[in-house]
Predict the 3D structure of the following.
Amino acid sequence: MPNTDALPRDAQSILELAARSMFDLFANASEGMMLVDRQARVVWINEQYKRFLPALGFERVEDFVGHPVASVVQNTQMHQVLESGKPILIDLLSNRAGTFVVSRVPLRDAAGEVIGALGIVLFDHAETALAPLIQKFSMLQRDLDEARRELATQRLQHGAGKRQSKYTFASFVGTSPAAVEVKRQARRAALSSSPVLLLGETGTGKELLAHAIHASSARARGPFISVNIAAVPDTLLEAEFFGVAPGAFTGAERKGRDGKFRLADGGTLFLDEIGDMPVALQSKLLRALQEGEIEPLGSNKLVPFDARVIAATSRDLVKLVREGSFREDLFYRLNVLPIRVCRRCAIGARTLRRWSKPWVKTWPCAAATSRPS
């Protein structure tokens, strides 16, 4: 059994023991230590600190110790600690010797008066020691800047009465390697104007990703139009996509009605549940994508459109192609930039609406998709 009799029981002794232990720890594990008195003069440096003297411009210890710290260490903040009596636990210090991660702690006497300060060099290669932290901070800052930029854009566009995307990549919750890879692929897709195919089970955030891709693309100022193919009756899908000419049939509006392709002109058209599209309509969709033109119902005129298509499905399109229920040429037309999102890699907008705090699952998933052989 370990001997606990040597441990102090009163607060003062505990603090003294902790102070000695911490000092020994820093003295051995740090890259260097410096002590200054109340007048901010250097009174002591340890052996590790002496190796920085040549880079600071001093050949002898005597040329360094005994001088005001501000005259021998550029950009020091030791005087600030002495004046405020408050520590600076983590800071970056850059001078002739390099860039360091440092800590500065005030020293007090029995009466509580500040009598000096201890400076500790924690890391002498800040760019290497803090690389993971700096990288993570940079990613968070990039997401924040992107969210602010897109929010400002959406506010401007909202006044024009346009349908806009609701989410950005900052809304896609997930820090697992799989989630990060999905966001990386989606960001790359946002830089292109080619069709995107989002594959994954229901509830994995495919629609959220579609919004985010549009919001980060060159078409962000244009409309974002979405249509859930599974939710529209087959008999109305053609009119929903291509629109209706004035007086096309009994009961039709006299002014006609624009379809989703026309509404999405200059922006993005999101086709959700593309795997549920009837075969008869697939050929018309393929021709529209190939030619960049649509023919409204009841019209003989071709209407050009300019819309980037993002499709999504929870069904196995490769299997549907083999079964003959999904056109192979349409599959290849949509499968230019495939992104697979798994249920367990991240929870997106649906979770954000259900819970006040984001909840993340971190199981891996495949990031690629297959093609029919």
